[in-house]
Specification:
Number of strands: 2
Number of helices: 21
Strand order of the largest sheet: 1-2
Shape: globular
Order of helices and strands: HHHEEHHHHHHHHHHHHHHHHHH
Helix content: over 70%
Distance between the termini: 19 Å
């Protein structure tokens, strides 16, 4: 390992964190966008370097200030973390590349440097959560990313974003507070904040009431942050009223990072020391996952606004992720981690296509999409590819994780396994219906005024959108990357690998 490779975990956080304040002084606004995009691309390259080690099953560790854990601050990147770092940095880079024209349209030039500074703080905060091996530092980075996320969502021209941000702020603050209370109780009982050290010291106190209460606070708090049904009420409006480029970033990775913390804490820290962990974990989360898939998909069936429709779809997809994890088996957890990656690809492509549509249409109500495919055929074709991946059509990325989910359900066996398969298939069929509602409006409805010319989105925006759509096909036909990382990550979570 070269000297620079050894510092990649800390550089993943430090690079965007240092550039964020510098962006605020850059004028004109195009320079701020260029600096932010270059920084995001650099973060993506760092994530790729970390992924190279994770593909071999290594856990890459970094001791801040050369102080050994648990006394010093430790950073660690395993296969699970590398998978989500790819999602985070890739979504950020794609959204920034495609979003230049949209952001110029939605955000005043004088405010853009501040907006891009907040963007980099979100990137640094979420990356910090993924590389931190310390429970309190996870909270610190959680707050950095959350506070900056509020700025991103409120940064657009729509005043309705303000009550959406206020609801997000209230729910996010409650979730973070619950997590902090739980970590405080854990620290009171163990005297340490390092995750690996907590697991060792919990053995002697695992059955005591403060630990049980702490587990409840942490689970509910992270469930709020991850928009787990029925704690999802902040998500639809936050996605709907945020600037379109910010929606691409948040929809692809924000909730998944909270799920990363939840799964890591439950499986790495708690499972080895709690003998009844697996049945309790499954009994608590599996019903919520099933309800999330069915209820959120049902709402999406009748939602008239395109961005809210896709937001409720995201709540349903979080249900799929939890469903695999709640099986507490290697195939189930592998499917869960794979779906994080594949859903980010599908939803990223869909929201990029929505951003393209928003540059030419008066609104994103389905009624205003009538005939959009005649005016923007390439944009709607990319939307269809993303929709097929979301549904889980063979040949797309979404198919592979749903196939793994069905295979894991078969291993559950009995009536319960067949019931889970029924939920997965039913949710996919409901996705067919709500994606078809958009396709039907764009391709088959007659607009009030017949379009006189084809007027596509700006070339850069459309090119990036099609790159994301093509990635859904590529990773559907060749899913080795997400399969390897998800499999290694699942083995690590379940204690089957170092």
């Amino acid at each position: 390992m070269s000297s620079i490779d050894a510092h990649l975990p800390v550089l993943q956080v430090v690079v965007p964190l240092l550039v964020a304040p510098l962006v605020t002084i850059l004028r004109p606004s195009g320079l701020a966008w260029a600096a932010t995009t270059a920084t995001s691309f650099m973060a993506l390259m760092i994530a790729v370097g970390l992924t190279a080690g994770a593909l071999e099953g290594d856990i890459q560790r970094y001791e801040v200030g050369a102080w050994a854990a648990p006394y010093g601050i430790e950073l660690a990147v395993d296969s699970f973390g590398a998978l989500l770092l790819l999602i985070l940095t890739g979504a950020s880079t794609f959204a920034l590349l495609a979003g230049k024209a949209s952001l110029d349209q939605q955000i005043e030039s004088g405010r853009q440097p501040l907006f891009f500074s907040a963007w980099l703080l979100v990137l640094a905060g979420l990356a910090g959560i993924l590389v931190s091996a310390d429970a309190f530092n996870i909270f610190v980075f959680m707050e950095i990313s959350s506070l900056a996320s509020y700025v991103l969502i409120a940064g657009g021209p729509d005043r309705r974003a303000l009550p959406a941000v206020f609801k997000y702020l209230m729910m996010g603050t409650i979730g973070a507070t619950f997590y902090l209370i739980g970590i405080g109780l854990i620290y009171m009982m163990t005297g340490t904040l390092n995750l690996a050290d907590i697991q060792v010291r919990l053995v002697d106190v695992a059955g005591l009431r403060p630990v049980v209460v702490a587990i409840g606070f942490i689970t509910v708090g992270l469930g709020l942050k991850a928009a787990v049904f029925p704690l999802h009420v902040w998500l639809p409006n936050a996605y709907n009223f945020a600037p379109h480029a910010a929606t691409v970033l948040l929809a692809a990775c924000a909730a998944k990072v909270s799920l990363y913390v939840l799964l890591t804490f439950d499986f790495v820290v708690l499972q080895p020391v709690l003998p009844e962990h697996d049945p309790h974990f499954g009994a608590f989360l599996m019903p919520l996952a099933v309800l999330g898939i069915l209820a959120a998909s049902a709402v999406a069936l009748f939602e008239p606004n395109l961005k809210r429709l896709l937001a409720f779809s995201s709540v349903a997809q979080i249900g799929y992720i939890l469903l695999g994890a709640s099986m507490v088996s290697l195939p189930g957890v592998t499917a869960s981690l794979m779906h994080m990656f594949n859903h980010a690809l599908a939803k990223g492509a869909l929201f990029l296509a929505v951003m393209c549509l928003a540059t030419r249409l008066p609104s994103l109500e389905l009624d205003d999409l009538a005939g959009a495919a005649k005016r923007m055929p390439w944009t709607m074709a990319a939307f269809v590819v993303g929709g097929l991946s979301l549904i889980g059509i063979p040949g797309t990325a979404g198919f592979t994780s749903k196939w793994y989910l069905i295979s894991a359900s078969l291993e559950v066996g009995g009536a319960g396994g067949w019931l889970l398969i029924g939920v997965i298939v039913t949710g996919s069929l409901m996705a067919v219906v709500y994606i078809w509602r958009v396709v039907e409006a764009a391709w088959f409805r007659v607009p009030l005024a017949e379009p006189t010319e084809v007027r596509e989105a700006p070339a850069l925006m459309l090119s990036v959108t099609w790159l994301a759509a093509a990635a859904n096909v590529y990773f559907g036909l060749s899913p080795w990357l997400q399969t390897t990382l998800a499999s290694n990550g699942a083995r690590m979570l379940l204690g089957e690998a170092p």
